[in-house]
Automatic annotation (TrEMBL):
<dbReference type="InterPro" id="IPR014729">
    <property type="entry name" value="Rossmann-like_a/b/a_fold"/>
</dbReference>
<dbReference type="InterPro" id="IPR033947">
    <property type="entry name" value="ETF_alpha_N"/>
</dbReference>
<keyword id="KW-0285">Flavoprotein</keyword>
<dbReference type="GO" id="GO:0050660">
    <property type="term" value="F:flavin adenine dinucleotide binding"/>
</dbReference>
<keyword id="KW-0249">Electron transport</keyword>
<keyword id="KW-0813">Transport</keyword>
<dbReference type="InterPro" id="IPR029035">
    <property type="entry name" value="DHS-like_NAD/FAD-binding_dom"/>
</dbReference>
<keyword id="KW-0274">FAD</keyword>
<dbReference type="InterPro" id="IPR018206">
    <property type="entry name" value="ETF_asu_C_CS"/>
</dbReference>
<dbReference type="Pfam" id="PF01012">
    <property type="entry name" value="ETF"/>
</dbReference>
<feature type="domain" description="Electron transfer flavoprotein alpha/beta-subunit N-terminal">
    <location>
        <begin position="4"/>
        <end position="189"/>
    </location>
</feature>
<comment type="similarity">
    <text>Belongs to the ETF alpha-subunit/FixB family.</text>
</comment>
<protein>
    <submittedName>
        <fullName>Electron transfer flavoprotein subunit alpha/FixB family protein</fullName>
    </submittedName>
</protein>
<dbReference type="InterPro" id="IPR001308">
    <property type="entry name" value="ETF_a/FixB"/>
</dbReference>
<dbReference type="InterPro" id="IPR014730">
    <property type="entry name" value="ETF_a/b_N"/>
</dbReference>
<dbReference type="GO" id="GO:0009055">
    <property type="term" value="F:electron transfer activity"/>
</dbReference>
<dbReference type="GO" id="GO:0033539">
    <property type="term" value="P:fatty acid beta-oxidation using acyl-CoA dehydrogenase"/>
</dbReference>
């Protein structure tokens, strides 16, 4: 029977949502009859455990210790080592966040467990784990196969979140004796909160270099206002030019989005852009070049000038 373990990520009692994607992926990879254990690490973070106990997992191990109030590499590594030795999971999944980037490479070396980082998809085939990740700035996608125990860190926004459920038994709280950290956190500097979270939106309208200049943005902002639940995002040139803030960038060096509807306006469809949006449920692309690669992933492709198409669409929506 296959045992997958998800390491939940939280800070200050707030669960990182990629944890839910990891549980969803773990459930699929564990397969029918496989078990999914979730490990929660922290101090007095019962709220997180309560939230996890509504997720589709089989058991929760909660390590509660004052040393774990804030993330430190040495204390977390020690906890993971001890829990992995105890639970003996075959596959360990965790979010590919700054914490994930810091923690798992060292753990992988120390425990001699192969690590595949920044995975965008994963599956099990003939007993092996096959995980896909991108190389060379998203130009190539490579499949890695591991036979035996492995750690997979999962790129945020790439997996379906787990459904609701209930673990078969109450969360087991463990206080690891003798846990200490050589490092301590002096404080956090939080970046300014993003005005719009494009990865949570139902509808994403994305503009590309085809809009030509910042002064043309109001037309597309007007379109967004006409569509309930829509937010405005952009391709990298739009962000690099300072026309939209960094938090609005879709793609390999921006955010991965999977909205119900993605509308690409004046975007060519470079691989680095596609990797951030091709998982959208329905894609509409408008481009005046009929050979633009974006049409390969679009459900509806419209060959037109965005400066003609968008005003006409706003006009229709206004009616
Ligand atoms: C390491 C690395 C990371 C990267 N990360 C990202 C990333 O995260 N996100 C990202 O988007 N890119 C990223 N890129 C850049 C990527 O390679 C492309 O350069 C970029 O996606 C192109 O953006 P675009 O489609 O807006 O512009 P272009 O490729 O210039 O395309 C503009 C399109 O608009 C169309 N157009 C022009 N005028 C009109 C009009 N009036 N009406 C209709 N259509 C029109 C054109 O036909 C064209 O297809 C990255 C590149 C590298 C090397």
């Amino acid at each position: 029977m296959s045992e997958a373990m998800v390491v939940a990520q939280q800070r200050g009692g707030e669960l990182n949502e990629t944890t839910l994607e990891c549980i969803g992926a773990a459930r699929e990879i564990a397969g029918a009859g496989g078990r999914v254990t979730v490990l929660a690490v922290g101090h007095r973070t019962e709220g997180v455990v309560a939230r996890l106990s509504e997720c589709d997992c089989d058991s929760i191990v909660y390590v509660d210790n004052p040393v774990l109030q804030d993330y430190t590499y040495d204390a977390y590594r020690e906890v993971l080592k001890r829990v992995i030795e105890r639970v003996k999971p075959e596959i360990i999944l965790a979010p590919y966040t700054s914490l994930g980037m810091d923690l798992y490479p060292g753990l992988s070396v120390e425990m001699d467990i192969p690590l595949i980082s920044d995975c965008i998809s994963m599956k099990r085939e003939d007993g092996k784990v096959i995980a896909r990740r991108q190389l060379y700035g998203g130009k190539i996608e490579a499949d890695y196969s591991v036979d035996g125990r492995c750690i997979l860190t999962v790129r945020p926004g790439t997996q379906r979140k787990c459904g609701s459920g209930r673990p078969s038994k109450a969360a087991e709280t463990v206080d690891l004796a003798g846990l200490h950290a050589r490092t301590s956190v002096v404080g956090y500097e939080t970046p300014p909160k993003e005005d719009v979270e494009i990865d949570k939106a139902r509808i994403v309208i994305s503009v590309g270099r085809g809009i030509e200049k910042k002064e043309n943005l109001p037309l597309f902002e007007d379109l967004v206002r006409h569509i309930d639940g829509a937010v405005l995002a952009g391709s990298r040139p739009v962000i690099d030019s300072g026309w939209l803030p960094k938090g609005r960038q879709v793609g390999v060096s921006g955010k991965t989005v999977k909205p119900k509807l993605y509308i690409a306006l004046g975007i060519s469809g470079a691989i680095q852009h596609l990797s951030g949006m091709s998982g959208s449920e329905f894609i509409v692309a408008v481009n005046r070049d009929r050979d633009a690669p974006i049409f390969k992933v679009a459900n509806v492709g419209i060959v037109d000038d965005i400066f003609k198409f968008v005003p006409a669409l706003i006009n229709q929506l206004g009616k």
